[in-house]
Amino acid sequence: MAPAMIEDFKNDPDFPPLYPVKFERNKYWNAKDLLQDASAHARVFLMCVNADEMRTILYQAGMMGFGGEYVYIAIQLATISWWGTYRKFLNDMMDQTLKKVYENVLILELINPVEDNGPFQDEIRDLALNEFDYTFAENETA
To answer: Which terminus of the chain has fewer CB atoms gathered within 10 Å of its CB, N or C?
Structure first.
């Protein structure tokens, strides 16, 4: 979970204790180890990862039998190509396992409630290009 979110939950006396699992995006991360560590402390997992990482984690959860008694809450931060989409199946060998695990997934998706935000989106596009060398595709929202 994001550090700010963890602090908010820690400060709420009505919220049960948290067990944040540090997730480092590198070539060595292992979904099985991540799930084994987290499952020793919780049955509800809040995930803020890109679509490929979520697919890997949920597939491993299915392979480990982490079905009905586990709940996965995913936060779809943006609709941009590098983040991916949580609702896309790839028609591969993983899909059958994923479809079963998806019965326990809640996806929270941020929407853009402001219709006339052209200047703001232009600013985001400029920042993405100048700071991160990322160019939004024609159909991507900023």
So the answer is: C
Cα(66)–Cα(39) distance, integer angstroms: 9
Cα separation, 88 vs 95, in Å, equals 10
Task: State which H helix or E strand residue 124 sits in.
Answer: helix 118-132
Residues 6+ apart with CB under 8 A from 131: none
Give how far the C-alpha of residue 134 lies from the chain's centroid of Cα atoms, to the nearest Å. Answer: 20
Average per-residue pLDDT for the chain: 82
pLDDT digits (tens, 9 = 90+) for 49-58: 888 889 999 9
Residues whose CB falls within 8 Å of the CB of residue 8, separated by 6 or more in sequence, listed in order: none
